[in-house]
Specification:
Length: about 425
């Protein structure tokens, strides 16, 4: 298990380039198998979740050629199975997009049921509701979901919950159904729009993505395409918060500033400055961040995937802040780790009350999940002394070359392998 060692107290300075959006890429790679031809996808983030999904796609027989870490060619005409094993779902839940893609293309699919995860139970009842509305019969047994249909027919579906996953999965299943599907109360995240744009580049007929009503007119077939993934809104937001928290001055390049509006608004409330350029934002942190209140909401509200990182920055702000998590039921696991670094945070139900402290001190902490891990990195960048973060593979699921990008911003961070006794010893005494 690899670890990060961070010596805190240095302002981030310089420029960083944001990678492609992980949560767009996962839906797009699943959609890529829906045509019998070669699809080229580039600006893929080179992260573990993408690697695992490509392994699942290869496992059902599709041809996958990794041109380089950020570019892949997928040919769906070689698929000889519609069964996705539990080993892939266990590693990344989003393998369930193959359910919608295989059902949409072959009218049947069998995918292991995703379990819960660190941030909540994460049911998929709305995905199933959509598939059944399209005429599929769905049965769950032995930990597998099996969906099949003689044919899929367009339907009017109203989602009970705004769900990114269900919106994408139902779009996949509906794009070659007979007739038109109206999907209401849909998620509007940039990555949902990117998947719809990708499907349209393959000849699908999807209108309204990015609003709360999406109309999907079924087409006969989808054709090959070449596509470039949008920049990652959450990776960009993470670097914005890190720049602000470390009193830094960072130019964050290859972003779509509009996607960052909710994050920018909060940073301005906290006293940071944010300069918007065409495809970049420049963030400067003040001597001392001010407190504010945050409530996570579906896009265009404040993203739940930025909640832990923002709480870490507020831990060293002046005053008291309240962070309310309205999307997931258990997304404050990182608070115990931050408290070990001296943060003063009290979790009451789905809110964290944060009393800003003058400083944090380095400690040995563990990354419970992807975004919580990113929050601990921000805390380590700010803390006095050394912080050792264990289980960084959880962080690297969604952040490409994270420590290298931070090193490029003058951060004192390095990655060591957990079994490198010498390296660990070198830092042990420093972490206390
Ligand atoms: C996606 O998860 C993202 N993952 C998550 O990012 C992100 O936090 C989440 O959307 C919200 O923005 C990917 O895109 C791979 P949801 P998803 O369905 O689709 C409930 C990260 O860090 N719900 O929008 O699973 C659910 O329990 C990850 O990159 C149902 O009740 O999220 C939650 O409370 C973490 N029934 C709410 O909806 C369903 O059938 C939103 O979940 C589906 C969801």
């Amino acid at each position: 298990m690899d670890q990060y060692i961070i010596k805190g107290g240095k302002p981030l300075q310089g420029e960083v380039v944001i990678s492609g959006a992980k949560n767009a890429a996962l839906g797009i790679l699943a959609a890529a198998i829906m045509t019998d031809g070669t699809v080229v996808v580039d600006n893929l983030p080179c992260v573990r979740d993408i690697k695992v999904l490509l392994q699942a796609i290869e496992q059902i027989g599709a041809k996958v050629e990794r041109v380089d870490c950020n570019t892949v060619k997928i040919s769906g005409n070689y698929i000889d199975s519609v069964v996705i094993d539990y080993e892939f779902i266990r590693k990344i839940r989003a393998s369930y997009y193959l359910l919608g893609a295989l059902l949409g293309k072959y009218k049947r699919a069998k995918v292991a049921l995703p379990g819960g995860c660190n941030i909540g139970s994460r049911p998929i009842d709305q995905h199933i509701k959509g598939f059944e509305a399209l005429g599929a019969s769905v049965k769950i047994e032995h930990g597998m979901i099996e969906a099949s249909a003689d044919k899929l027919v367009g339907s009017h579906i109203y989602l009970d919950v705004v769900s990114v996953g269900a919106t994408i999965n139902i779009m996949l299943a509906a794009c070659m159904a007979e007739g038109t599907t109206i999907l209401e109360n849909t998620a509007k995240e940039p990555h949902v729009v990117d998947v719809a744009n990708f499907l349209n580049s393959m000849g699908a007929d999807i209108k309204g993505a990015g609003t709360d009503i999406i109309r999907i007119k079924g087409v006969e077939k989808l054709h090959p395409t070449e596509y470039s993934i949008i920049p990652d809104q959450i990776e960009a937001g993470t670097f914005m918060l890190a720049a602000a928290a470390t009193k830094g001055d960072v130019l964050i390049k290859n972003v779509i500033p509009k996607h960052l509006d909710a994050i920018t608004a909060k940073l301005l409330e906290m006293g940071a400055t944010v300069e918007e350029l065409d495809d970049a934002v420049r963030v400067k942190g003040p001597e001392k961040l001010g407190s504010t209140h945050v409530k996570t909401l579906p896009y265009p509200g404040f993203p739940t995937d930025m909640q832990p990182q923002t709480a870490a920055a507020l831990a060293v702000s002046s005053g008291t802040s309240i962070v309310t998590e309205s999307i997931f039921e258990n997304r404050f696991k990182y608070v115990d780790e931050l408290s070990r670094m001296g943060a003063s945070i009290k979790v009451e139900g789905n809110s964290a009350i944060i009393d800003g402290v003058d400083n944090l001190t380095g400690a040995i902490v563990r990354a419970p999940d992807l975004r919580a891990g990113a929050a601990l990195v921000i805390a380590g960048l700010v803390a006095e002394g050394y912080t050792q973060i264990e289980q960084v593979e959880n962080i690297e699921r969604g952040y490409e070359n994270f420590e290298k990008k931070l090193q490029g911003l003058n951060a004192d961070i390095e990655k060591i392998s957990g079994d490198d006794e010498k390296a660990i010893k070198k830092f042990k005494f420093k972490v206390g």
